[in-house]
Task: structure prediction
Amino acid sequence: MLKKALENVLTEKESDELISAFDQIGEIIIVRIPDSLLSKKKIIGKTLLDQVKIVRSVFYQASAVEGNFRTRDLEILAGEDNTETKYKEFGCKFRVDVKNAFFSPRLSTERERITNLVQDGEIVTNMFAGIGMFSIMAAKKKKCTVYSLDINPVASKLCETNIKLNKLAGNVISINGDASEIVNNQLENKSARTLMLLPERSDEFLESAIKTTKNGGIIHYYSHIHADKKTDAGKLSEEHYLSVTSVKSEILDSKIVRAVGPRYYQTVVDVKISK
Result:
């Protein structure tokens, strides 16, 4: 449908590139546009707004996700200039601000995987929780307690809102602040499972993840890995983790979460640690 709508504006190759580079989040579309097509961004935005009927806003992502707060610059192309929306995933409801707090719809499969691994009665530390999606999805299904940490006050506030939006079997505790400081002050040897969903800075925070995790607990260690062959990425991520960890670790699993660039992957290694 979108290809047909764009056929008078873009070539078939340009259309393919564009369609693979946009995310729909509730009533919002975010599109990444190659430099070669920036002159057509307004008509692209209007076309997307006209063709995707439930959408009220189309934004161009003008920067990468960056900074301690993990935010991005968005430029309105068509519709309402409002970056907040509602989003649903696997039976959970979320209030999202796509500009001012980290959120990615492309992690839905990984969120479901982690939710299925969490056990009733577990205490979980989610070190970089954003608006609380991993935390709330786990506590929706399991009678667990999740400490949901984020340094971005907007993200933490949205997490608190999202906790109230969902009927949880377990408990989510949203804490705003630096993950390392929170672990040192409140959460040492607290968790049976720790999530480190900040792949670009996992090495920096690994000691804090080890500190919050009990002996015999599990760490989900995310990283960015360059691999010439896609099939090598998981093994390379295991080797990288083992080269930087300070504790005895049993590798339980490793996998690609998603591609983030040419021969560049976001990976996760699940490890059981002994302290």
